[in-house]
Please model this.
Amino acid sequence: MGYGVTIALASVADFPEGLEPGSAMPFLSDKPVGEDGFYMLTVAWYLAEGRGLVYNYALPTVGIQPLSTFLYGGAAWLVQRAGGDRWAFVRVVQLLGVLNLIALGLALGTLARSAFEAAEDRQRAFVVAASFTLFNFWLYRALTYGLETGLYLLLLALCVLLSLRVLASPRQPPPRAGEVVALGLLAGLSGLARLDFGVILLVFLGASVGTRRLRLRHAFVIGALALVTVLPWLLWVHSVTGSWIPSSGRSHSFLVTAFSAGTRSREMAEAAINHLTPWMYTGSRGLPTLLAAATLVGGLLVLRRVPVAPQRAVRAEWRSALTLWGGAVAPLFVLYFALYGSSHFYERYTAPALVVVLPVLAVLVVQRVPARRGWWVAAAAALLLLCFGLWAGLSLHSGRVGNAHAVTAGFVAAHFPPPHAVGSFQSGVIGYFNPNVVNLDGKMDARALEARQDHRLAAYVDSLGLDVMLDWPSHLTAFLPRDYLRTWEPCPEHPANGQTLCIARPRLR
Model:
């Protein structure tokens, strides 16, 4: 969390436009707020200005998750009223991410605590689960990225906590009507945080009714309230795009093939290992992931050799509820593997598993540590904090530019400001700081997505009157015909990041 303080105090008036990757100068457009996060922040900024859900050039968009966008929009409104600019808004988003992380730590700590009867075990479970959350560096990066992940996980954790009151149990009275209604509304908010919660909820309700942990009428009320809550957003999506699926989801949708199965399998395995090792941060790199897997296996082998004292048995209803939610989250791993090509995002897509994994890990540890050795709780928390500091140093304080598009954003501001019209397939950070940038991969522009899918993107680019296009060469050649690209010319200069190609209409010369 030290990085949030460091960068908030940094004096960054504008882009270091000539910055090379590896330079020692950190800046707000690079990290921890990330490329896709800047899409949502752009829409939130316009929302705060009263323009509605639009992207650059007042383009109506559905390429965001609505609940987080509106919350960020409220924060942007406060920043604007205080005289702040888009740089100040990025700082506020980082602060909100840290506060979200603290709230999630409290929620998961409370969830782990509810597994035990004895006060001492409950206290230790809370501390361990909260530490697994607060000092989980991957969670810190995900929750300060600028997307919906933190709010989504917090709402899911609250759903799990409330379900402990709603699910049938011999040891507690039937749920009150208010509790059932509250869970339905909370489920609806979770769906507005991220639409794939609908999969989790459907499986959870079906399994709960099938195992007689939930009455059919209660399941119907919960599902109906959730659907009614999400329905206005679905209607907006359909009115803008003609589809019930947001453009951001469809732009990443690619069925698994024999060619992509290997990469997807590796990325999904890395995601699972990262979720199971909150003390590690692998950055999806091979060797750190193997090290994380080794520490996980070693830890489980040690825990297996330690017997569980009878008085530390987990409450049966807690175990049953976590099993139901774990089973409900599991299909996400299969669906994203089969349907989504952006495998580098698998960790974020499957992050709901953490709401089950972290409390369960905490409970396993508390069950097997002798009560007379109370010092271990403080020692474990200190070790986790030490690991967090290590990963922060290697990741955030390495002095390296993580997102090359941040350099491109400065290049556009310096060389192609308005009235130039600029296109980019990866326009997250570039478009946030340059309102004259159009998104071409379809995440934010459903018309661009349709043109891309119909192989008429070149005609769509011409209809927009773009002067300049910038992106990785692989993206330009993947989406636009080579014959069409030959009608453009290289820009006199290119972004100094070693990765981005700039091409311009011949008339600009």
Summary: DSSP finds 24 helices and seven strands in the chain. Residues 270 and 284 are 6 Å apart (CA to CA). Strands lie at 54-55, 59-60, 422-424, 437-439, 468-471, 489-490, 501-504.
